[in-house]
Design a protein that fits this description.
Distance between the termini: 60 Å
CATH topology of one domain: Aspartate Aminotransferase, domain 2
CATH superfamily of one domain: Type I PLP-dependent aspartate aminotransferase-like (Major domain)
Strand order of the largest sheet: 1-7-6-5-4-2-3
Structural class: alpha/beta
Strand content: 5-15%
Oligomer: single chain
Radius of gyration: 20 Å
Largest sheet: 7 strands, mixed
CATH class of one domain: Alpha Beta
Number of helices: 6
Helix content: 25-40%
CATH architecture of one domain: 3-Layer(aba) Sandwich
């Protein structure tokens, strides 16, 4: 009788839960299972675990714990980043059409929200890539317009492994935002022109967090998505880093968790970074 042993070699798709991770999580499946929104002791015990996880995630990203929003995974994080910003802008500036930029090789969790927003009248640009799968930072700069609200470029491609020049792109966006504000202070403010809105930079770092530097300040990022199941964590758990200056509106409603970010407008929480 022959015995066939299967070997799993597709860790870019998903990973098993690490034994140490499982050991830490098991009490929350059995003994510490209270609803973290509840005020009783069981709920507060769960909340303490979530707060600890938020602090640990923040240390990895180099941000404040309050800038970490837990989600069900990178798909929800991506949808919240893309749709959440546009929802706020449409409410605040109903007569203006925001412009969003991404690449042609993004994950469907970015491309499909972009296409949905296009159908709703939002202007979208899809940047091509070269034969290595790289986005040209100069071409991205040319694509930026006065009404650009969001640029979303994935950190590492999930199929071919291309590493995008995230820091270079982030630095370019930061410089453009500063120049726009300075130009307004020099001339526009005196003419009582409205202050130009900054546009924001998001990256889907799902395939990057296991291997690359994800310090959000070093990369000049405003939003970053990640998923636990790619890094030997549990399935159904993800996070979205949201810089305090980024306005978001919830895309899922009624849950009341994560500071109501799944319920109503989230304007950012002012908290000093470590």
């Amino acid at each position: 009788m022959s015995i066939t042993k299967r070997i799993y070699l597709d860790h870019s798709a998903t990973t098993p839960v690490d034994k140490e991770v499982m050991a830490v999580m098991m009490p929350y499946f059995r003994e510490k299972f209270g609803n973290a929104s509840s005020i009783h002791g069981f709920g507060q015990e769960s909340l303490a675990g979530i707060d600890l996880a938020r602090e640990q995630t923040a240390r990895f990203l180099g941000c404040a714990p309050a800038e970490v929003v837990f989600t069900s995974g990178a798909t929800e994080s991506n949808n919240l980043a893309v749709k959440g910003i546009i929802a706020v802008l449409k409410e605040k500036f109903p007569g203006k059409t925001p412009h969003i930029i991404t690449s042609l090789i993004e994950h469907d969790a970015i491309l499909e929200p972009f296409r949905e927003l296009e159908k709703a009248g939002i202007e979208a640009t899809y940047l091509p890539v070269d034969r290595r799968g790289l986005v040209d930072a100069l071409e991205l700069k040319k694509a930026i317009k006065g009404n650009t609200a969001l640029v979303s470029i994935m950190y590492v491609n999930s199929e071919v492994g291309t590493v995008q020049p995230i820091r270079e792109i982030g630095k370019t966006i930061r410089k453009i935002n500063k120049r726009r504000e300075k130009d307004w202070e020099m001339a526009g403010a005196a003419k009582k022109e409205p202050k130009p809105l900054p546009f924001f930079f998001h990256t889907d770092a799902t395939q990057a967090v296991n291997f690359f530097n994800c310090d959000v300040d070093w990369h000049y990022l405003d939003l970053l998505s990640l998923s636990g199941h790619k890094i030997y964590g549990p399935k159904g758990v993800g996070a979205l880093y949201v810089r305090t200056s980024v306005p978001l509106k919830a895309v899922l409603t009624g849950g009341h968790h994560e500071k109501n970010l799944r319920l109503q407008t989230f304007s950012g929480i002012q908290q000093k970074r470590p």
